[in-house]
Amino acid sequence: MTEAKERVLAAALRLFAKNGYAATSTSDIARELGVTKGALYKHFASKRDIFESVLARMEERDAEKARENDLPEGALSEMESAYRAVSIDDIVEFAREMFRYWTGDEFASAFRKMLTIEQFRDPELGALYQQYLGAGPLGYTADLLASLGLSRPKERAVAFYAPMFLLFAIWDSGARAEATSALDAHLEEAREALKKDLSKRARNRR
Amino acid sequence: MTEAKERVLAAALRLFAKNGYAATSTSDIARELGVTKGALYKHFASKRDIFESVLARMEERDAEKARENDLPEGALSEMESAYRAVSIDDIVEFAREMFRYWTGDEFASAFRKMLTIEQFRDPELGALYQQYLGAGPLGYTADLLASLGLSRPKERAVAFYAPMFLLFAIWDSGARAEATSALDAHLEEAREALKKDLSKRARNRR
DNA sequence: TTGACAAGTAAACGATCGTTTACTACAATA
DNA sequence: TATTGTAGTAAACGATCGTTTACTTGTCAA
């Protein structure tokens, strides 16, 4: 992927995330780049091709990130490596890093908004939205909690992940300080609650 | 509002909720109704007028619902009447009813999806999204919990409302049975936790 | 019975859409 | 130095967009 193509993808994604795919014209993308729309077709076959390249680029980034962290790839949905030993502190810090990624990383943040916008238009995009932001991380969290031996892992996963999901929306509204402090409060509460339940469960097993 | 206009709004909202405002053409709306697009202009001045009439219609419904329930209107955001006496059971049942409304009511469900899609395009729509589905219900919940005398009402409001917000997304993915049972589990857990904390707080005050 | 009005149609309007074409400038290579 | 390929432009294409116009039909009150 050349640097020029990458710049097109970034500009297109920025517009897709704000106005959606349909409401973003090829002229809009070209204007954002300071070129004419004809130039886009030197790098991409069509507008749809640009869109699909954005999806592919996100997959690449996801795979890179997973390789770095030695964590399951596939938007945290394939989770055979959930057998790795994890601690509650690991889970909490991983969650904090994930929130930072989906809000602070420019590409990831725009991608998240784009999927939010496009999820109902095409079942495939709906599945991607779930995989990256909905049922995906929820199920992954449940697997991690289950691997710790906690009871009712699904219910606990909802309690753990749902606030992050809500705070994405609060963050996007511009209330970033509130979202950040609410996230910190949530994660510390969750850390304590999970540790207490884990030690209680250990006692019961003696 | 004549019955014909109402039918236009319902058809338009259905399409707006799936494809978004920009990707929905006047021909699409007319086709859904079995008429030609020219007929729409007998009832509405423009496509934008249709969209704004949908917003106005939702406001009306919200006001009706608030009047019926003797509850605060304005998308549950104006909350001077939070001084009403409420019990934890009231809050839980109100939350269940609210979830049923935003998922089961056809108009409300489509409206919720439409706002989800359009929230980033226009700051005014972003504010509406927050008011109906984000910071609005979150703040209202915090006010209710605070009026009960619970400590850390904001943090508890996140723990109480966030699962509902997440389960909207799970519900929309088609996993309705999972969303429903997860909601029930969440509400019963929350009911017990809140009651326990409330009685503990009452004991401490003796 | 007639005439006004409401609700629809078909066709056309200019604007904009995604895409293609013909052409230009320039950098790297043989 | 000659040539080839890359990345751009300007203009045009047909399709579709939101909207307007001229016209038709049916209903109901004067």
Primary descriptors:
mainly alpha; 2 domains; Tetracycline Repressor, domain 2
Mean pLDDT of chain A: 91
> Are there runs of chain A of 5+ residues with pLDDT below 50, and where?
74-82
- End-to-end C-alpha gap of chain A: 57 Å
What is the helix fraction of residues of chain A, given as a range? over 70%
Topology:
The structure is a homodimer of 206-residue chains.
Chain A: H1 3-19, H2 26-33, H3 37-40, H4 47-69, H5 88-104, H6 106-118, H7 123-133, H8 135-147, H9 153-172, H10 176-205
Helix pairs in contact in A: 1-2, 1-4, 1-6, 5-6, 5-9, 5-10, 6-7, 7-8, 8-9, 9-10
The structure holds a DNA duplex (30 and 30 nucleotides).
